Amino acid sequence: MAKGLFITIEGMDGSGKTTQIEKIKEYFQQKGYEPVLTREPGGTKISEKIRNIILDESNTGMSPVTEMLLYASARAQLVFEVIKPALNQGKVVICDRFIDSSYAYQGYGRGIDLKFIENVNEPALDNVMPDITFFFDIEPKLALARRISATGADRIEKEKLEFHERVYKGYKDRAALFPHRIKIINANRSIEEISEEVRFWLNKVCP
User: Does an H or E element contain 135, and which?
Assistant: First the structure.
């Protein structure tokens, strides 16, 4: 693959992202690639430290703008250190969350102006955007119940249901704006049914 391929995975926590990321990794391994897996916030030593600050349950007084700037800072480091170098080497990069999360969570969820988020993230992205994004679509209430029963809840997940419903709307609106890039995947199905649809789209970007 002369040019790298950048795939991002979006959705509410509890939507089954982690399981499908493993399936996507296997898909590329079967094709002879060794994909680079990473996540947001995190993926580098510096970005993981920022992640700990963002998700720390004791940081209840964090302002929405502080939160958004921390996400952008973690993203800038991840792009600089991992994503852009890997893509320049022609690798497949699979990232659990990326820029669409900021619009959904900090824009729709926290009420921060979307243009402000765009301006702040422009240098963080450094002209890197996903080739394809999978949004695993599941009702927020069900997704939260799944997540909390499995792993408990972090600072973001402990927000009221109304917050998560706004985030969900943000994702749906983003998908409507960028249908060529963001593929809505019904996540309320079996693992194999979901994986089959994901592979259908992957075959189009990596025949």
Answer: strand 132-137
